[in-house]
Every structure is written in C-alpha cells, then in structure tokens.
Design brief:
The chain is 37% helix and 20% strand. By secondary structure, the chain is an alpha+beta fold. A 3-stranded antiparallel sheet has the order 1-2-3, with no helix packed on it. It binds zinc ion.
C-alpha cells in the first residue's frame, strides 16, 4: 500500500504532546497514537492564523471583484 504523499493530511494537533501527531480515527473523536489524548485539526495558534488567512482571502476577493465592477 502506498504511503500518503501528504504527511499533514494524516496528522492532527495533540494538546498533550504539543505537536502534530499521527492519530487513531474513531467515530466520536480522534486520538493521539502516542499519548491517547484527543487531537484537534489545528492548534489554537494555527486556528487563529488559519481564520485570519481566510478573512484576508475573503477581503482580497471582494476587493478584486469591486475593482472589476467599478
Ligand atoms: Zn499526544
């Protein structure tokens, strides 16, 4: 079986290990393979950065749209 070509698709943030880890999938939650804590998609800091990036992207698109119209 080929390995995933994108390592980060198969990792999530473990607040216990404080890093991105491989995780076990279960229907209710995902768990760190190292310590068994619940993992999240992003760390809190990364989530802020991600949301900020989305916001910038949204504004950039709206601006680009407005420029084309006017
Ligand atoms: Zn962990």
């Amino acid at each position: 079986m080929p390995l995933s070509n994108n390592f980060f698709e198969d990792t999530k943030y473990c607040p216990c290990c404080r890093e991105y880890v491989l995780y076990l999938k279960s229907p209710k939650a995902n768990y760190c393979v190292d310590c068994g804590a619940r993992v999240r998609l992003f760390s809190a800091a990364d989530k802020r950065a991600f949301n900020h990036q989305l916001e910038l992207e949204k504004r950039r698109r709206i601006n680009a749209h407005n420029k084309r119209v006017s």
